[in-house]
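User: Second chain of the day. Same drill as before.
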Amino acid sequence: MKQTVKGITYDTESAKKLYDCIDATLSNKLSTKHNVLCATRNKEYFLHLFSSNALNKVDTINNMRCEKIVPLTVENAISWGQMWMPETRYREYFMNEDNDTWTKQAISVSLSVKEVKLLNKISNSTGFSVSKLISNAVLAVYDARQ
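Assistant: Same format as last time:
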């Protein structure tokens, strides 16, 4: 499945599948519900939600495939991984030193209400997380002074 959301293309064929969480509560003998955490080459994260039949093919209703792509922020991908991935798989991907997305340190900052509202507005309109926006701003200021 391939879908573009807010200018970002999510493709289940080319994305790295990090973990397939089978939802046993919604599965039955004829169909299995999947929640697959995926990452694009540009480290954009999303869930690929679908159900598959006994032949391991995506289910269809009226010839429409029963699947959906749900974009995730980095923070949501981390939270999903903590909740659903086995600890060894979570550590293998999210706590890998080569993956700088996951080895960043958390800090707290004091911002005015106006600044927080503006950050949230920009985040919603661009699809970037607040953390990504702040990181980009810090790097831009640093680069400008070099």
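The chain has a mean pLDDT of 81.

User: Great, on to the next one.
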